[in-house]
Specification:
Elements: H1 14-57, E1 102-105, H2 111-120, E2 133-138, E3 153-158, E4 162-163, H3 169-176, E5 187-188, E6 192-197
Helix pairs in contact: 1-2, 1-3
Length: 202
C-alpha cells in the first residue's frame, strides 16, 4: 500500500512558468508607463502647437478666402445718422455689417499655412499632417470700427490627431490576462482649440 507522502511530485518548470507570468506583468507595467508618459507629453505639446499656430495666424495674411477687407457699413443700418469712419461698431445699433464665419483647412498651397506648419510641426506626433490644422475667422463687433481694416477673431483647431503607441502593450496585456489585445493600438486626441483677435503689424 502506497502512502500519499511517498508519492513523488514533479515540479520541474514551475519556476519558469511563474517567472513568465510575473515578467509579462512587469513588462506591461514598464511599457505602459513609458507609452502613457509619451501620450501625456504629446498632448501637452499639441496644445502648445495650437497656441503657437493661432499666434502666428493673428499677424499673418488670412489663410481662408472670402473675408472682407474692411468693416463696412450695414445697408440700411443706422438710417438717418451721420457716423464717421472709426466709430466703434457697438456705438450705434446696426451700424456695421456682420460677416459670416469663414472656415478652411491648412494646405501646403497657402504660404501662411506653410509658415504656421513649419512652426508647429516639431511639436506634433510623427503622423500629423497640415490638414489637421483648421482655421476659422469670425466677426466680433467689440473689436470692430466702421471703415477700419477687418479684424476677426482667429481660431485654430487641431482635430483628428492620432497618437501611435510604440510598445506592445496590447500583446502583453493579453498575455498577462489584463485586458483586450487591441489595447495601445492608437489613440485619437480630443479636438484642441485656441483663439486670438487678428493684429495688423503694419
Amino acid at each position: 500500500m502506497t502512502r500519499a507522502a511517498d508519492v513523488l511530485v514533479d515540479d520541474d518548470g514551475s519556476t519558469l512558468v511563474e517567472f513568465g507570468v510575473v515578467a509579462a506583468i512587469f513588462l506591461l507595467m514598464i511599457f505602459a508607463l513609458v507609452d502613457f508618459g509619451r501620450l501625456g507629453f504629446s498632448y501637452v505639446l499639441a496644445e502648445k502647437a495650437t497656441q503657437r499656430a493661432v499666434r502666428v495666424a493673428s499677424v499673418r495674411p488670412p489663410i481662408c478666402t472670402g473675408l472682407p477687407t474692411i468693416h463696412a457699413r450695414r445697408l440700411f443700418g443706422a438710417l438717418g445718422q451721420t457716423v464717421a469712419n472709426g466709430t466703434a461698431c457697438t456705438a450705434v445699433a446696426g451700424l456695421c455689417e456682420a460677416p459670416a464665419t469663414v472656415r478652411c483647412l491648412g494646405s501646403e498651397a497657402n504660404p501662411t499655412a506653410r509658415a504656421i506648419w513649419a512652426e508647429v510641426r516639431p511639436l506634433l506626433p510623427v503622423n500629423a499632417e497640415i490638414s489637421h490644422l483648421r482655421f476659422s475667422y469670425s466677426y466680433d463687433p467689440a473689436l470692430a470700427s466702421l471703415g477700419t481694416r477687418y479684424a476677426p477673431v482667429i481660431t485654430v483647431d487641431l482635430a483628428d490627431l492620432d497618437f501611435a503607441f510604440v510598445t506592445p502593450i496590447g500583446a502583453l496585456a493579453s498575455l498577462a490576462g489584463a485586458g483586450p489585445s487591441d489595447l495601445g493600438e492608437s489613440f485619437v486626441f480630443p479636438p484642441m482649440s485656441s483663439s486670438l483677435p487678428a493684429e495688423d503689424l503694419r
